[in-house]
Amino acid sequence: MPRSGHAADSATTRRRQPRPVVRTVTAVAVVSAVVVGGSYAAGLGPFARGATEPEPAALAQARAFLADWAAGRLPKAADRTTRPTTAQEVLRNFTTGLDIHRPTLTAATTPTQAEDDTVSVPFTATMPIADLGTWTYRSKLPLRKQGDGGWKVDWSLSVVHPRLSGTRKFHLAREDADAAPNVTDRRGVSLSGDRFPSLRPVLDQLDTGTGGGGQRGAIQLVDRVTGRVERTEATLGKKPDRPAREPVRTTLDATWQAAAEKALASGAHGRNASLVALRIDNGEILAMANSPSSGFNRAVSGTYAPGSTWKIVTSSALLLKDAVAPTDIVDCPKYLTVGKEFHNVETSEHRNATFLKDFTESCNTAFISLRGKLGDRELGDVAGKYFGVGQRWHLGIPSYDGSVPAPRDQTEKAASMIGQGRIQANPLLMASVTATAVSGTFHQPSLTHGNRDTTTTTPLPHKVVTPLRTMLRSTVTDGTARVLSGLPGGIGAKTGTAEVSEEEPNNGWLAAHRGNVALACVVEQGVTGGGSAGPVIRDLLTAVPTDPS
């Protein structure tokens, strides 16, 4: 059942050094698609019959083998050879680790016939290596006539490449130019994936302007046992052809970023989690951290139900219509049925509670009881018009900017009042929602400078901002965000607990503000917001007691 954010519970690579680093990997990938040079049926034959002229059927079989191999139809290609089982295994393993995609294999039009009645068909292999260019080489297909009169490729390792053998194979050695030296924080401090692991996926997405034509690498022939490099088959990529531009200066603050990474590493307890901190006055992102630190940047691209942190938006919609005031009595029973039964965390209840109390204790049933005060599309309209939710944001990296679909029925409308149903958000969006709520003005979040802003929003009126600030502060002093109550700075916050499924623990959320900073954190399977995301935010604010300059 959907639940509110309630306190209790305790919470839970790949960039290298800036200098180029050679990474050696063994030759993956089943070869996929193909372009094969022509076919007999297309008019390149027939060959004249003669004592030393090859038969057209041999050339047709060679082309069919190349087509199947390159298209990834490895069993079919292997069946065209004299040793199908071995051939299929070799074809599958040959490109392992070479990052080859969509090769071109082209048969020559001038095969030769040897004295032993085998036919040799030369071919050219053009192997695109991801991010590096193409490796092109020539080899030959020997074909032998079978007892049934048909032709098959006379299998050996040299069919694939003339230097491939039982003792030698191919490796790809990449030389990566790390983007880290070209990216700095707001004050010019260099940001690297080694120092700030959570920034690795972010640095990958930034245009660093290194101007050097990207990565370089080499295809190497190595000893299968010792790994010793016997020769370099091809050098790929290119050297920088122009000087690097000025470093990319981000809005990040190295102090906040370091504190965020540390707080999340110690507080996530091995669970997936993420957080964002941004400036309230202009939307500049100060820190974004993920656990685990590598891979998906869930802080800005995640899609989560925001749970009861969404009650900031729901309250705004109700206050805009004068549908409720903080002092109004809105009963908070244990259960409320709207198509299905909704309840509060631990089936708590607060009889004759004020709306302020409902907010600070994150009462689901009270908020759901007010659903008739809003039109079916009104919650989404308010989210977009005042908070920029669902509009296209331009941060400087890709982001997911929220979704508030119109409810399909009353049950879904009830769920949307408490941040469930089909509403989706992430820590970036909820930090921005909090910043807008306490300032009254939406600012498009940004990670780099000079980004386009195509959003259109309307400021929240004082009659909404003033009670929201009071309600958020009361949640810290007297409600579910008491985990932050011992910290200075007049902190306001909203907890959230978002149901994932009947089988999994709920996600824990907390959105907060202090001074000119707004923050949001989600801990997957954190059970409650106050118990899981709360300690992470507390540790971050403790480590950085002052606002950024």
Can you walk through the features of this model?
- The model is unreliable at 1-52, 177-181 and 209-213 (pLDDT under 50).
- This protein is elongated.
- Strand 16 and strand 17 form a beta hairpin.
- It has two domains: 21-175, NTF2-like, domain 1 (Nuclear Transport Factor 2, Chain: A, Roll), CATH 3.10.450.100; 254-543, 3-Layer(aba) Sandwich (Beta-lactamase), CATH 3.40.710.
- The strands form five sheets. Strands 2, 3, 4, 5 and 6 form a five-stranded antiparallel β-sheet that branches. A five-stranded antiparallel β-sheet has the order 13-12-18-17-16, with helices on both faces. It has a four-stranded antiparallel β-sheet with strand order 1-7-9-10, with no helix packed on it.
- It has 14 helices and 18 strands.
- With 549 residues, it is an alpha+beta fold.
- Helices cover 26% and strands 20% of the residues.
Topology, element by element:
Blueprint: E1 21-26, H1 56-70, H2 74-79, H3 84-94, E2 104-107, E3 112-113, E4 119-129, E5 133-145, E6 151-153, E7 168-176, E8 183-184, H4 200-205, E9 216-223, E10 229-237, E11 248-249, H5 254-267, E12 273-279, E13 285-291, H6 298-301, H7 311-320, E14 335-337, E15 341-343, H8 355-360, H9 364-369, H10 378-387, H11 410-416, H12 427-439, H13 462-478, E16 492-498, E17 507-514, E18 517-523, H14 529-543
Parallel strand pairs: 8-11
Antiparallel strand pairs: 1-7, 2-4, 3-4, 4-5, 5-6, 7-9, 9-10, 12-13, 12-18, 14-15, 16-17, 17-18
Helix pairs in contact: 5-14, 7-10, 7-13
